[in-house]
Each structure stands twice: as structure tokens, then as C-alpha cells.
Amino acid sequence: MSDSKMIPARLAQLRLAMQRHGIDAWIVPSADPHLSEYLPEHWQGRQWLSGFTGSAGTLVVTADWAGLWTDSRYWKQAETELEGSGIAVMRMPAGVALPHVEWLADNLRSRQTVGIDGAVLSLFAARLMTQRLTGLGILLNTNTDLLLEVWHDRPPLPTAPVYEHAAPYAGLSRRDKLAALRDAMRADGADWHLLSTLDDIAYLFNLRGSDVNFNPFFIAHALIGPRRSTLFVAEGKVPTSLREALAADGVDLAPYGQAAQALAALQPEAVLLADPRRITLALWQAKHDGVRVVEAANPTILAKAKKSESDVAHIRAAMAEDGAALCEFFAWLEHALADPAQRVTELTVEERITAARARRHGFVCPSFDTIAGFNANGAMPHYRATKAVHATIAGQGLLLIDSGGQYYGGTTDITRVVPVGEPTAEQRRDFTLVLKGLIALSSARFPRGIRAAMLDAIARTPLWVEGLDYGHGTGHGVGYFLGVHEGPQSISYYAAAEPQTAMESGMITSVEPSLYREGKWGIRIENLVVNRPAETTAFGEFLHFETLTLCPIDTRCVDAALLRPDEIGWLNGYHAIVRERLLPLVDGAAREWLLVRTEPI
Ligand code: ZN
Ligand code: ZN
């Protein structure tokens, strides 16, 4: 059957299953039981059912209608991929939490039933849905997984082995991490704690895996008790020696599917710490009604965000490896662009940059899909070149490259913009304004504990004074050989300045001011920075940023006349450090390139 017939056929099967279960509207979110950013194929049911391959989207199917909600990044892609499927593209407005629930509230009648699999729905979202729908008399069925009835060739669960993120990379032992977690649990009055989020689990147990793309995670739940803890992970994934090491540290293994039973077995007097945004409704419902629950953010979120001195030392080394890979890549790129016999496309960039990283010490995999966007493509912040649609890099313009790597000693994420041909005065002006924002925030000092969102204006001021802005946050937290996106801090005026976003020493955040000229070019300059203590005065403790990323910022795009002497000083100082740190790691063309591109201006 052709693709265009397959989707309607699958929807028809689903509608029959809906009828059998008395469900009037079925929701398929992009989610798994761990509420992850990247989903194993087993949970890519929304993609299987709709044909839409974007990473974020929610499908709603009724008896006579189907629609897929997605954000502005994916509108174009959704329109192409959903053509002829009978599924409408629903443009998700920014700032509306669950627009599909609003649609259901408007389009369903009292006594009709909405169904969604509670095993892939966060407790938090479940409560919002219940609030909105039950007030209208609309019923909610969360105990059924219709995919079980229609998706017969569903891919199995991933089976990649679990391995230890051991010394010297792991600065704290899992025993110490578990002890710190139990202290935090006791402070909340809890003796049990349920963890389903994969980054929290990988961090806590010093374990890693490769069950999903880009993140070194493995599929598991964990139940931490007063004395021992249980890791629910598929049999065969943990080698015997590791199983023994875990047991010695008070960690027992149980089959992946048994987390719900273990929760059900908790005694009614137990006090369970759980994070409503980070556990599913189905697991929540498994526990005995008598179990008292303390609702709070997982304590491991803050613990893993605050990198230790030893972590930061490894991250600096990983940054140097990453920088050396980029020198090699950019040296090749400049050479290739100057050679009329070579055809360089956005896809070649992605291949070459990953190959250069793969040659470096400690490299594991890319930390996300490389974004290489030439001219107008660079103006789309989440653009992804595909085999079918990509640009050849030639002529004149700006090439934006956002990429990163997972190394045993750290996670990287860097954006650079390089000129192709001679940049125009307007391009250089735009680039310099963005650079001014990067310099302003990178050299900021601020009170410890300030909410991260408050810092956003510092990076934007040079753009704001010119009446310019960009439509995404300035910085996201980054993990230590974990997710390239992690909380709790977020330097973004779009994010709520909640207490847990307070800036603390050791947190690593991206600084990525940008400017997009639709249809023309995009500029983003991105470094990772770590919060370091600056000084303590009569007014309190102050932090500053240490820039971790090591890679030249292309000065051919800079209009030096727009920079103040202190900004020129920052740029030259940064390039002196980049040169000093990377020179021992590169040779040949990469070394030549590094020397030229770190010349002071
Ligand atoms: Zn990036
Ligand atoms: Zn980033």
C-alpha cells in the first residue's frame, strides 16, 4: 500500500477501535512513559498513525475529523507530510499549553468521551485536561491504549546495554548521590521517591545507555526507598558485573514492567515524593490510595544542574576536543568553498562535522540533529536540511551551523556563523549586534540566586535599542554527558521566572542571542557558560560566567566600528584563550585555520 493510502487505512482501523471502546475523540501525544524529548520508536505512535515525522505534535482523531497540533517550527513540514492524509494541520499558538484540549472543549458535547493513554500522559497534564473537560460534562478515558489494537508491527522496546558512567568522569559516586537524595527526601518528609525521567535516573545511578537518539539514556523507572532502591530496567540490558556493583550500592534490579506493581505494594503509611510534571498518570494511579504523596520537583534536577569542580574540569577537556574537531571541520569547509570543483551542501556540512567529532577522544554521538542553514534557511531557527530539500552553499551569504556532541566528559552545543564570499555591510552589522549581546551576557555579573529569566534582557539590549529581537530563549541548561536541554534554569523571557530557576554556582547554560531576517539570513552565536562565584560583598554573593566553548567567532563578519574598546578586548581575549587551548590539539590545515581565525582585531 502506498504511503498516501496507508495513513487513511490506519486511521480507519483506529476509528473502529474507538467505536469498540465507546471513545469519541482519541489523542495521541508525542510522549512516552518517561515524558522524554526523544522517543524510542516503540512510542512513536503519533508518527506511525499520522505520517508526520516532526519531534513535537499531538494528533486528535474523532469519528469524522482528524487534526495535528504542532508549533511554528513544524508548520511547513506538517503541511507537506500530512497532504492527502485527511489530517488537518492545526497551528499551535505560542503560550497556549494544551490547544487541542481547548478544541475538544469547543467541539465535543456533554457525555461524549475523550480517550488518551494514561501511561504516556503526565499527571500534571492529566489534571489540566480533567479540569477543562469534566466541567463541561465530557468524560475522560485514560485506561486504554488503542495503539495495542491497531499497531501490529509496533517496534519492540530498545535493548541497548546499560553501562557505567564511571570514575574519573563521575565525580560523585552513586552512593553519595543516593545519600544526598535521601537527605532531600527526608527534608520533604518522604521515605519513598518515584523517578521516571531518564536524565534523572542516568544521573543518579551514574549509568548511561543508548536507547534513544542523541541522549545517552536508557529506558527505566526507579523507586528509591529508605534503605535500598529498585531500578526497573529490561532484563538482559545490565551485565552481571554491573548488576553486582549496583547491588553492593543498595540498588536492586527488577523487570521494566514491574514499576506499577512495586508502587502498588507500598504500605499505606508510606510517604512518597513525586513530581507531577515528571511521572505519568498511570504510575500515579498504581499506588494504594492510603499512600501519602508529597508533590515537589525531583531533587535530582537541581543536583545534576550544579556541576562539581571535577565535572567542570572534564567538561573543559571535552570542550577542547570539540573545538579541535571544529577547527578541522572549518578548515576543510573554507578550503572546499574556495574550490570550484567541490560542491558543498548543507548535508555535506552535517556529515563532515560529525566525522570530525567522531575522530576526537571520548566522543560518543551527536547531541542533537545538526542545523546547517545557508542564507534564508538559516533564518528558520529549527531548520533541518533533508535529502529531499537542502541548499548548495555557493555564491554569497551567511552559513549558520548549530551542532553538538556527547562526550564521556561532557555535552557540547555550539552555533557559529561563517561568511560565504564577502559579507555585506548589513550582514556585518547584524552579526555585530548579536555578538554585542553575546559579549554583554557572557561578561555579566549578577547576584547568586537571581532567576535565570531576568538575565535575558542583557543579551537582547543591543538588539532592542535597534528595534530588533528574536523569537526564542537566549539560553537553556545543558547536562554533563546527559541531555543537551536540561533544567531548571532557562535564560528566556518566555519562561516563567519560577523559584527553581535561580542561578547557582556550577550550572551550565547556553548563551545564544540571534537575529533572523526572514527569507534572507539568520545569525546565532552560541557558547556554553558555567556559573562561577565572582565575589562576596556587603550586598551578597555574586556570580559570573566562565565561557566553556572553545571555537573562533568569525571576525570577517564583524564591523569593528560598532564595538566599544571593552567589547573588542573581550573578543580578542576570548580568541587568545581559544588559540592557547586548542593549539596543542590540532595540526596541519586545522592549525593554520586556528591561527588565522584567532588573530586579534
Ligand atoms: Zn545549539
Ligand atoms: Zn543551544
User: Which distinct ligands sit in these coordinates?
Assistant: zinc ion
CATH superfamily of the largest domain: Creatinase/methionine aminopeptidase superfamily
Tell me about the biggest sheet? 6 strands, mixed
Give the class-level CATH name of the largest domain.
Alpha Beta
On the 0 to 100 scale, the average pLDDT is: 96
**What's the number of extended β-strand segments?**
28
The number of domains: 3
The name of the CATH architecture of the largest domain is Alpha-Beta Complex
Strand order of the largest sheet: 4-3-2-1-5-6
Q: Name the beta content range.
A: 15-25%
End-to-end Cα distance:
61 Å
> How many distinct helices?
18
Helical residues, percent: 25-40%
Chain-wise SSE layout:
Layout: H1 3-21, E1 25-28, H2 45-50, E2 58-62, E3 66-70, H3 75-81, E4 88-91, H4 99-107, E5 113-116, H5 123-134, E6 139-141, H6 147-150, E7 163-164, H7 174-187, E8 192-195, H8 198-205, E9 207-208, E10 220-224, E11 229-233, H9 240-248, E12 251-254, H10 259-264, E13 271-274, H11 281-286, E14 292-295, H12 299-305, H13 309-338, H14 346-358, E15 363-366, E16 371-374, E17 397-403, E18 405-407, E19 410-411, E20 414-420, H15 425-442, E21 445-447, H16 456-464, E22 475-477, E23 486-491, E24 508-511, E25 514-517, E26 521-524, E27 527-537, E28 540-547, H17 565-582, H18 588-597
Parallel strand pairs: 1-5, 3-4, 5-6, 8-13, 11-12, 13-14
Antiparallel strand pairs: 1-2, 2-3, 7-9, 8-10, 10-11, 15-18, 16-17, 17-20, 18-19, 21-28, 22-23, 24-27, 25-26, 27-28
Helix pairs in contact: 13-14, 13-18, 15-16
